[in-house]
Amino acid sequence: MPNARLTYEEMMAGLLSKHDPDTAMSLAVGGDYEAMGETLRQLLESYGLRENHYLIDVGCGSGRLAYALSRSSYRETLRYLGIDIVPAMLQYAAAKCQQPSWRFEPAAELKIPEADGCADMLCFFSVFTHLMQEESFLYLREAARVLKQGGVIVASYLDINEPRHWKTFTGNVASAKTRQAKAMDIFLSPDFFAVWARQLGLTLLDEPERDCGQRVCLLQKR
Ligand SMILES: C[S@@+](CC[C@H](N)C(=O)[O-])C[C@H]1O[C@@H](n2cnc3c(N)ncnc32)[C@H](O)[C@@H]1O
């Protein structure tokens, strides 16, 4: 019998049926909407995000990061595109941010709807966690295409080597055993990013340990 997998859309609908919209939209992206949004914003700033930059947020969800950015001092000059597969999340994110020039658009076919070499930074926070490795690779290839030379890709992921991620893994083992329907979690490791970086002509930068709940990987376009 195959495992029962919930799509993100099904998970979102389930949360909305049980919680008020704000709670559901927070839980759907991992919770802690405001505090984690600030953490993610500061992380991107530490990698060089600043005014006049163009940021593409792949798997932007309900706008946890975007909302924190909409409260930043440089929100007026920041260019922002968030893409996601769940329309209700995109609508919620756009309404939260109130930045008319920012774009929140549906993601399709693992493509990033932008021209070559236009973005200063791309981020994938907890997105590769929910994709097959091949799909993550395709997204990274797209990210490398739309990135400017010298620009960076920031991705967070569950690392099978990390003791603090092991609890999530054993929880998933229990769900697999009982065939509990849940969204898919994929565990990666730094090796994947080393190989992918080589294949895509990106440089894997050393990343000091950061706490945003997942391990962070930093890739630069040469
Ligand atoms: C754990 S949430 C993280 C959301 C957001 N990055 C954050 O940290 O607040 C994962 C997000 O990835 C989105 N997602 C899943 N598959 C996707 C795909 N193929 N393309 C774009 N987004 C996807 C989900 O809809 C969900 O919003």
Can you give me a brief rundown of this structure?
The chain has 222 residues and is an alpha/beta fold.
Structure report:
- The chain has 222 residues and is of the alpha/beta class.
- The chain has one domain (5-221): Vaccinia Virus protein VP39 (Rossmann fold), CATH 3.40.50.
- It has helices at 8-18, 21-27, 33-46, 64-70, 87-97, 133-146, 163-178, 190-200, and strands at 5-6, 54-58, 79-84, 103-106, 119-124, 147-159, 182-183, 187-188, 202-205, 215-221.
- The strands form two sheets. Strands 2, 3, 4, 5, 6, 8, 9 and 10 form an eight-stranded mixed β-sheet that branches. Strands 1-7 form a two-stranded parallel sheet.
- Helix 1 (8-18) runs antiparallel to helix 2 and helix 3 (33-46) packs across helix 4 (64-70).
- It is globular, with a radius of gyration of 17 Å.
- The termini are far apart.
- The mean pLDDT is 95.
- The chain binds S-adenosylmethionine (SAM).
